[in-house]
Design brief:
mainly alpha, 8 helices, 3 strands, 6% strand
Length: 216
């Protein structure tokens, strides 16, 4: 057909796209070993040689290093302030802003003492040259984090912070709301338990469920 360019397969381009797909959709690295995924990929392009889990891991780390350099360069050029948030990640819940960057993602061994957490946070700020560009630090509302911010303020140059750091500590609104909800659930906990027991009773068998629907 006129106007259609010849297609040239490139193994490296496909490998790079595979790595980006895994990053974008947060797929497990083991996907490259799934039989169904391998058969699907082969049906699209038989010439593509599927890589191993270790190889795709190296590709992803290579992409991370390049993006990290790019992000650090953007931060260095940024004349405005930067807000950061830190959390001990124990769930899959994520919060994303209009412009967000993962500055550091590391394993922190227990116990999560204020000295350990403040050291990790301070190292990150200095590594990314953000200690003089900080606007706020949003963290959970707990006494340990209060102590962490206090240690951080003692290490930073307060003159470079907004209002000498008095506005640095921002308590996570979602965490505060969660604490309020938990307190409310404690008050009505007995009522909720009765409702749960009632639901459990009527759904325990098909006959009971049918009797409940007839009564309702």
């Amino acid at each position: 057909m006129a106007g259609v360019n010849a297609y040239n397969f490139d193994q490296n381009v496909s490998r790079n796209e595979l790595a980006h797909m895994i990053i974008l959709h947060e797929y497990p690295l083991s996907i490259v070993g799934h039989i169904g995924f391998r058969k699907y990929s082969n049906s699209l392009q038989p010439l593509f040689r599927m890589v191993s889990r270790n190889t795709i891991k190296k590709d992803i780390l290579s992409i991370y290093k390049k993006e990290r350099v790019k992000s650090k360069h953007e931060i260095d050029k940024n004349l405005g302030r930067i807000s950061i948030t830190t959390n001990m990640w124990t769930s899959q819940n994520k919060k994303r802003g209009l412009q967000s960057r993962v500055m550091r993602f590391i394993y922190v061994p227990s116990p999560h003492m204020k000295e350990v957490l403040s050291s990790v946070l301070l190292d990150t700020l200095l590594e990314w040259n953000t200690d003089r560009k900080l606007s706020t630090v949003a963290i959970d509302n707990c006494s340990t984090n209060d102590a962490v911010i206090k240690i951080i303020l003692d290490e930073l140059q307060r003159g470079a912070l907004i209002m000498r750091g008095s506005m640095l500590h921002m308590r996570c609104a979602a965490h505060v709301l969660d604490l309020i909800v938990q307190d409310g659930l404690d008050v009505i906990g007995s009522c909720i338990e009765k409702i749960r027991e009632s639901v459990g009773f009527w759904t325990a068998s098909t006959m009971r469920r049918q009797k409940f629907e007839e009564t309702a």
